[in-house]
Design goal:
heterodimer; A: mainly alpha; two-stranded antiparallel sheet; globular; B: alpha+beta
């Protein structure tokens, strides 16, 4: 069996090497943003999208953490893809992901203690994020390092933009504020926007936005808009 | 010679090599970042202690404000006898076991106190002797702010989902609450988690401990109840967390009252 695999491998290697940003590889980057978005189309990794989108700064840090774990995991598994024994490949992937997540968690605790406190268990739960495991199993195990790297960036970005969009909507309408790492939370009451939001202004911020169900509804609205624009996603029947 | 990727030997070899590599990497990371993390935790603790006497500190100025306001750090045992103390201007050294600042009340609670509380429940005498026997130590921080003296008492208890903790500051009459800060690990957002919000914490300010025999020192009542000067309104929908705050106040504050009494007696003798 192993000899067969080697033959296939050699044939692949004989082809003239593909440029990193060939049309096919560019699709790896762009597809997950829309056509095969991990959250809105594949409906993976929904749990964290619901849990940490109350504030934008948490969503930003979460997205960066996932980006790091995703790239690290995809590249490492892709490098090892010919030496990982088939029978323990899932465990190997899990260990790679878990190790990267623990590193992220330790670094956050050391350098961004306040945000790390707010993200609490959700950084640890990146380990069980189906997007990462799914990409390792479906892509990195069968592809070279370059494409795996691009695939990781594409999928992490596809995850990130949904997370950020949901977080912006929820924080603005739920808390009447916006926050970014490093600048903390800026409430609109304190700015020249106060007239719109303060007591008697036209918008009273809505506590429902902060509760988890609203994240689901916002994701639902994004899926609705996406499907009405992208006809490829509409099932025929 | 091609290695058989699916042989048992290779699988074992791969697994062992992977564990060694990953284990080493993680150990190095954790060890390298530990000093920074400990510093962050200490800073957070200083911010909490200062918060209890209504001094707003952030991570950049917490250490400076802490040495400015805290004049004495004391560790007392269950009977209120002083075990060790440090002057306020002594540097906080995380390796110094005798520094009351380094007493980890959360760890103590998890290891000892929680067990006794479950075992003895309301039986205060048995609880007291068990805590005394186990040698549980309670830190207290003396703060001077605007010429007035305050005592910051740390405490730990149990909420609905996990530990809750707080810092309560008493005025020099030993019974008026000046300020309180509470925090939690995993209480329900919007319900029990509200104990760390300002609206709950300000309710404690100016309230008095009830020192009469046979009554609770302080009560956190079920949400919406009538309150007096010895009680505050708990959190609606966060009953178990509110009860946890109540329990932790009534269990921990007597220790500090013992200490204040001892200190007073000594002063009277002199």
């Amino acid at each position: 069996m192993s000899t067969e695999a080697q033959v296939v491998e050699k044939e692949v290697e004989k082809k003239p090497s593909e440029p990193l940003f060939s049309k096919k590889n560019r699709k790896l980057l762009t597809d997950p943003l829309d056509d095969s978005n991990p959250i809105t189309v594949q409906v993976l990794g929904i749990c964290s999208a619901l849990a940490i989108t109350v504030q934008l700064q948490q969503a930003v840090i979460m997205s960066l953490s996932v980006l790091f774990v995703m790239i690290g995991g995809n590249v490492i598994v892709s490098i090892l893809r010919n030496s990982i024994p088939d029978r323990i490949r899932i465990i190997v992937q899990l260990v790679v992901i878990a190790a990267l997540v623990i590193i992220v968690n330790e670094v956050l605790k050391a350098f961004l203690p306040d945000i790390s406190e707010k993200l609490s268990v959700f950084v640890g739960l990146i380990i069980t994020n189906c997007i990462i495991m799914g990409r390792l199993e479906a892509f990195a195990l069968g592809n070279k390092v370059g494409p795996s790297f691009l695939d990781a960036i594409g999928n992490a970005m596809g995850y990130a933009w949904i997370l950020l969009a949901v977080a912006i909507v929820r924080e603005v309408f739920g808390s009447g504020a916006i926050s970014l790492p490093g600048m903390g939370q800026v409430k609109f009451f304190d700015t020249e926007w106060a007239g719109f939001f303060a007591n008697g202004g036209f918008y009273e911020h809505n506590n429902l936005m902060i509760l988890p169900p609203m994240a689901l509804i916002v994701v639902g609205i994004i899926i609705w808009i996406q499907r009405s624009r992208n006809t490829k996603l509409i099932e025929e029947n | 010679m091609a290695i058989n990727k699916n042989s048992n030997g290779y699988t074992f070899f791969f697994a062992i090599a992977m564990v060694v590599v990953v284990g080493t990497t993680l150990a190095v990371t954790a060890f390298g970042l530990k000093p920074l993390q400990q510093k962050n935790q200490a800073t957070k603790k200083m911010m909490d202690i200062l918060g209890a006497v209504k001094v707003d500190a952030d991570r950049s100025n917490a250490a400076a404000l802490f040495t400015e306001y805290v004049t004495r750090r004391v560790a007392v045992n269950y009977n209120g006898e002083v075990i060790s103390e440090k002057p306020g201007d002594a540097e906080v050294d995380p390796t110094d076991k005798n520094d009351p600042f380094n007493i980890d009340v959360k760890k103590d609670y998890k290891a000892n106190v929680k067990k006794f509380v479950q075992q003895f429940g309301d039986n205060e005498e048995k609880l007291a002797s068990a805590l005394e026997e186990a040698g549980v130590v309670f830190p207290v921080f003396e703060v001077v702010k605007d010429g007035e003296k305050f005592f910051v008492c740390p405490m730990v208890g149990t909420g609905l989902w996990g530990p809750i903790w707080g810092y309560v500051s008493l005025e020099e009459d030993y019974k008026t609450i000046y300020g309180a800060r509470f925090d939690h690990k995993a209480e329900t957002p919007g319900l029990g988690a509200e104990i760390k919000e300002d609206f709950f914490q300000v309710k404690f300010e100016g309230k008095q401990l009830q020192l009469a025999d046979g009554s609770d020192l302080f009560n956190v009542l079920k949400g919406g109840a009538q309150t007096n000067e010895h009680s505050v309104d708990g959190i609606t929908g966060g009953t178990i967390t509110s009860k946890g705050v109540d329990e932790m106040l009534n269990r921990t504050l007597p220790v500090y009252l013992n200490y204040f009494e001892n200190a007073n007696n000594q002063r009277a003798q002199r």
